[in-house]
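USER:
Class, as today's exercise, take the chain set out below, and explain how the chain folds.
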Amino acid sequence: MYGFSEKASASSSTAEAAAPALLAWYDRHRRVLPWRALPGVAADPYAVWLSEIMLQQTTVGAVKAYFLAFLERWPAVGLLAAAPTEEVMKQWAGLGYYSRARNLHACAKVVADDYGGVFPDREETLLRLPGVGPYTAAAIAAIAFGRRAVVVDGNVERVISRLFAIEEPLPAAKPLIKAKADLLTPRLRPGDYAQAMMDLGATICTPRKPACALCPLRPACMAAASNEAETFPRKTPKTERPARSGAAFFIRRADGAVLVRSRPPKGLLGGMTEIPGTPWTADFDVSAALRDAPLATSYRKLMQTVEHAFTHFALTLFVFAAEVPQKTKAPDGCRWVSAETLDGEAFPSLMRKVISVARQNGV
């Protein structure tokens, strides 16, 4: 049907047949996404860039509402560039991986100031922009500008690993996967092809229980031929995530205002708003936590802890709560935020968990 040989192989005939088969499938089954141009309509580079930054290590479902909110508030890159950093961070709050938000804003400024508000259309130039790595540069070049570029995300890695039954485990297999992806990438409709590969991985060639019977690439898939698709890609066993602990001090003033502070602009959760707390360490001593409390007052330790997983460590926060008089001044580096505006602060999800625990305990 698609010109594949009966016996699955990694031959040039596979490469020649894969793109037409995949594009034919995509034309019938493409996902409708808010950042994706309709058939026959030119893609908006700003929308493509914004979505690709948001989608880094984040699911489509989680990104949709944030993308639409950003686009409604800042419909052009110049408007985003002119926005105050704290407003961008607030709009991003809850989406995670906050360095992306800082890089997003920095990139918007570069595009507005150095490129007249027009995104560059070549990978090598896109790579010079803040927050734009090899995958993102390739995706923008292909999808927004129709450049032939090898676009490899997690979905594409899975498809290629199965198609060629690549035994080498990730992440060591990445160069080979990209080489095989390059072999398949067409010169015609490279943007549609890139999105088709992503859609295939997201809807058919899924991590568990892939729907091989519905896959347009099945005739050429070596993993499907051996009934081993679900075992690919091979992965190096993960090391155990180290544990850290700390304390958070939820302090409410008599008028309902809550004490907060901003984290340093660089580093983990950089620039975000947080409930004051202790450093997060592997040898944290909860009995000595009050030595780092921002105010000298009477605290009660809440029974419920906050658990949160970062990329490189797992965190447990003990929550201490206190109520102080209305005239209490904020210590250096902190500020009071009214109860009415608290939820609008640029809190990461970790800190929203802390606030939720405090509220559940009547603080």
Summary: The beta strands are 243-253, 258-262, 273-274, 300-309, 314-324, 334-337. Confidence is low (pLDDT under 50) at residues 1-11. The chain has 13 helices and six strands. The CA atoms of residues 26 and 196 lie 5 Å apart.
